[in-house]
Design goal:
This protein is mainly α and 227 residues long. Helix content is 90%, strand content 0%. Helix 1 packs antiparallel against helix 2 and helix 3 crosses helix 4.
Length: 227
């Protein structure tokens, strides 16, 4: 008898866990309807089918949990382990959580559908009003165009302001570099012999330039002579 009871417990638990996994998979599919950008005015066949399948799974799991409860109650206090009690409690908690999830998703889908229907009705009313009042529709169009132009001007002003700010920063940097250069020149002038050294370096560069220029001219003359 204990062996038969144990086998029955294992089979019922396996069925319960399998149905829990199936419920999670269907919840994943059902949640997509809640996050859909444009819900149709009425539930689609797929949405209705998915919700019905979830409800049927919850009912089957409740039946299995009742069977597990009766099976555990039929066992003696010695054979009824704390592990089985914990497993049964977990299945009950998961079932209750899934019932709340179904209710929450159902409400979310209903609210999304109501918002979509309201927006659709408002758009239809606006289109009907514009069709019946073409002058008003033209005025609305001109206002929309004016708004777009104003936004374009705002973007252009922002870009120009950034350009002016960058140009001002460049001016500040040029002034800073000029000050640094003047300080360097002033400091160099205070060091004894530094001006003479700079002058000799400049003279040597000019002399090297003259020698290099003369050498190039000589080479050109030799080249022209042999041509």
């Amino acid at each position: 008898m204990p062996s038969s009871t144990g086998n029955g417990w294992v089979q019922l638990r396996q069925q319960t866990r399998s149905l829990e996994s199936q419920t999670d998979t269907l919840f994943h599919a059902y949640s997509r309807f809640a996050s859909a950008p444009n819900l149709p005015p009425k539930p689609t066949e797929e949405e209705t089918k998915t919700e019905t399948q979830i409800q049927e799974l919850l009912e089957k799991r409740e039946t299995l949990i009742s069977q597990l409860t009766r099976l555990l109650d039929s066992e003696s206090l010695l054979t009824a382990s704390a592990l089985k009690q914990n497993n049964l409690s977990r299945h009950r908690e998961t079932l209750l959580e899934h019932r709340h999830t179904l209710s929450r998703l159902r409400s979310s889908i209903s609210e999304s559908r109501q918002r979509a229907n309201l927006l659709s009705t408002v758009r239809s009313d606006i289109d009907a009003y514009r069709s019946a009042n073409p002058e008003s529709a033209e005025a609305d169009y001109m206002l929309d165009e004016r708004g777009r132009i104003d936004r374009s001007h705002g973007v252009a002003d922002s870009v120009l302001s950034q350009a002016y700010a960058v140009n001002e920063q460049f001016g500040v940097q040029r002034e800073m570099l000029g000050n640094v250069q003047r300080r360097i020149v002033g400091a160099a002038g205070k060091v004894p012999g530094i001006n003479g050294l700079i002058g000799r370096i400049g003279a040597k560069k000019r002399r090297d330039g003259v020698i290099l220029g003369g050498f190039i001219a000589f080479c050109m003359l030799v080249f022209l002579y042999f041509m």
